[in-house]
Amino acid sequence: MSTDAGRRPEAAWPRGYGHLALDSVTSTLDEAARRLPELAGPTWISARAQTRARGRRGRAWANPEGNFAAALVLPDPSDPARAALRSFVAALALFDVLATLTGRPGALALKWPNDVLLNGGKLAGILLEGLLPSGLAIGIGVNLAKAPAPDQVEPGALAPVSLAGETGLQVTPEDFLETLAPAYAAWEAQFSSYGFAPIRSAWLARAARIGQPITARLPGEDITGTFRDVDEDGQLVLSTPHGTRRIAAGDIFF
Ligand SMILES: O=C(O)CCCC[C@@H]1SC[C@@H]2NC(=O)N[C@@H]21
Does ipTM surpass 0.95 in this model? Predict the structure, then answer.
């Protein structure tokens, strides 16, 4: 941390996790796929710059200097069918780190499926990719220093915000990872030991717009309803005038 404000108590690097710190790459997710055969266990791949970072649903992800960009590679995740639920695990770890840094958990919220909001704007995004022959990469981008211009996001999407812009905190990507890695490992231990149930409850306790009307945009269909729940498979549960809808993938608009 380059200021005392927002300093997090030192947390040790988690046992069993590796770290590759790279300079400029196309995408840390590309590096995850390329380097999988040489990785012996869970490994964070961080990069100072990404020239072709990607976001969800084929969108580009702006990665200005000073922002956090990393992919956590899990070479052999347990229960591959439920591996994607780790997007909720990663979101909780991000929430914890940002709550401690800012001292303002009430200003943070989690947006289904896996965005982190600060003061109602998008601060961080998560993109999961499966790796062949077997593995999972959890790509995480956090606007620590700069937010992309609002015209770089799709119409109707939440405005991007940065940690520095909203709070004045100057946190380097290196220091951010030092706190994120143990936070992730702690939630991962919960997930491995007890399954999705504790993750789901913790996520719901931090969810944006629960009990309120939201719109889910699916290919060819917009569904508006009241945000009721996230089910045991991580699906969004909406109650609509036509009954309950469970949504596995889509974009949410408030
Ligand atoms: O669309 C989203 O909200 C997900 C954004 C994910 C961005 C991160 S930055 C690190 C990793 N590498 C990428 O190319 N994308 C993810």
Answer: yes
Residue 81 is part of a domain; what is its CATH number?
Answer: 3.30.930.10
* Ligand 1 lined by 56 (C-beta under 6 Å): yes
Q: Is the CB of 125 under 6 A from ligand 1?
A: yes
Atom of ligand 1 nearest to the CA of 52: 14
Nearest C-alpha neighbor of 25 from the set 74, 70, 90: 70
Say what angle helices 86-102 and 196-205 make with each other, to 10 degrees: 40
Q: Are residues 51 and 162 in the same domain?
A: yes
Gap from CA of 132 to ligand 1 centroid (Å): 19
**CA of residue 72 to ligand 1 center, whole Å:** 12
Indicate whether 230 and 147 sit together in one domain. Answer: no
Residue 144: per-residue pLDDT: 98
Sheet containing 221-230: order of strands = 243-247, 236-240, 221-230, 213-218, 251-253
Quote the pTM value: 0.94
pLDDT per residue as tens digits for the range 147-175 = 998 788 877 789 999 999 999 999 999 99
* pLDDT score of 1: 36
Task: Pick the atom of ligand 1 nearest to 27's CA.
Answer: 14
Intervals of the chain under pLDDT 50: 1-7
Please give the pLDDT value at position 9: 53
| Residue 6, in any domain of the structure | no
Domain count within the chain: 2
